[in-house]
Write a structure and sequence with these properties.
The complex is a heterodimer of chains A (109) and B (112). Chain A is mainly β and 109 residues long. Helices cover 0% and strands 57% of the residues of chain A. Chain A has no helices and eleven strands. Chain B has 112 residues and is mainly β. The N and C termini of chain B lie far apart (37 Å).
């Protein structure tokens, strides 16, 4: 099945810094999503981005499907950005999201 | 639109008991999926339902089962609970199986 790897596993930043999170996947995909898991456990949708580039405020994402990777950019980070960021791709059958292990981001003031 | 709702939010059970978790998808969504999250294994797929049919099941024992009703609401059941079943159980819904999935707040199950 598809393998999803995220890097780095942990990231510590000062408020105001920029960061790039990476997601590599082992096969072609038609569905890729980025999530932020809040301290209470809920997964918040950030982007649905099987290909191309999207931006939402201080966050943007780029997926290069032909090279099997996606990047999540966070600019001018804030303490509220802290948490775990997950990348997930849909399996070939289109029935299950396969998640990476996540990147834990800690932003201090 | 209201988001995905899950009940109960927290649950404490003892080994050997059974538990039923409920998920109400976003209105109009017909696909519902369940995931288990543990510190050791991360987020793992449990089941996926579309129009009341289970289309896929993850690598979990038969103690884990589920169903979807005609109004797209879904339930999952775990029988003969084990300590290792302690986890956050997340439900997700989407309009179509391959479209954006939206997650509920989860049910945190503790097995003592």
């Amino acid at each position: 099945g598809i393998q999803v790897e995220q890097s780095p596993p942990d990231l510590i930043l000062q408020e105001g810094a920029n960061s790039t999170l990476r997601c590599n996947f082992s096969d072609s995909v038609n569905n890729l999503q980025w999530f932020h898991q809040n301290p209470w456990g809920q997964l918040i949708n950030l982007f649905y981005i099987p290909s191309g580039t999207k931006q939402n405020g201080r966050l943007s994402a780029t997926t290069v499907a032909t090279e099997r990777y996606s990047l999540l950019y966070i600019s001018s980070s804030q303490t509220t950005d802290s948490g775990v960021y997950f990348c997930a791709v849909l399996n070939q059958a289109g029935t299950a999201l396969i998640f990476g292990k996540g990147t834990t981001l800690s932003v201090s003031s | 639109k209201a988001g995905v709702t899950q009940t109960p939010r927290y649950l404490i059970k003892t080994r050997g008991q059974q538990v039923t978790l409920s998920c109400s998808p976003i209105s109009g969504h017909r696909s519902v999926s369940w995931y288990q999250q543990t510190p050791g294994q991360g987020l793992q797929f449990l089941f996926e339902y579309f129009s009341e049919t289970q289309r896929n099941k993850g690598n979990f024992p038969g103690r884990f089962s589920g169903r979807q009703f005609s109004n797209s609401r879904s339930e999952m059941n775990v029988s003969t609970l084990e300590l290792g079943d302690s986890a956050l159980y997340l439900c997700a819904s989407s309009f179509l199986p391959d479209s954006t999935q939206y997650f509920g707040p989860g049910t945190r199950l503790t097995v003592l």
